[in-house]
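Now for a typical sample entry:
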Amino acid sequence: MPAKILLKQRLLIIGLVGIILPALIILCLIFGLSIRGSYAKSALSIIKTAPNSVSNKLVKSISSSAPKKAEDLEAPIRLKIPQIKIDVALESVGLTSQGAVGIPVGIANAAWYNLGPHPGDNGNAVITGHYGYWKNGWLGVFNNLSKLRQGDKIYVKDKKGTSTTFVVREFRTYSLKDDASAVFISNDGKAHLNLITCEGAWDKISKSYSKRLVVFTDKE
């Protein structure tokens, strides 16, 4: 084959590569950004479904009643619920900028409300967890919370390695406008742990579920 033809073919190939390769890179970048955007949007939707509708007045009363510890070695770090195969890390959360109870950052984690009692101390300790589906197929850590039954056991481990056992007592469902004070305040002088997540119908406008499921438990 003449050298001129070979040269033309090589130049043509180089030219095509020079056009196609940048185009592929641009497409990958666009597709990648699109995936990230969808993931972020789904994450935001799940975050907005969390149980954070407690009134400021109620939150203040909860926060002021909880003793604070200088070196918090009793802070809970892990939650185990064998009956529904939960064995997850516990985040520590306070209040949001709107004055509501915080929620876990990770969909696979749960979160202890650190302005309330420690699990095992007198009063109502509170742990929140996500409910719902993410676009990557992950499920909220508390998706199966409703499958628990009275008498099932829940275990909370703290930084010292101490495990405290709680026994499921009852279930209650709250609408967003219901008085939820019983979830956070107890005057019986005993230790309780209440788990909160969402349930009900998804509202596309408010980007929230219509109800909150609370599992009330007592220290064993």
About this structure: The radius of gyration is 25 Å.
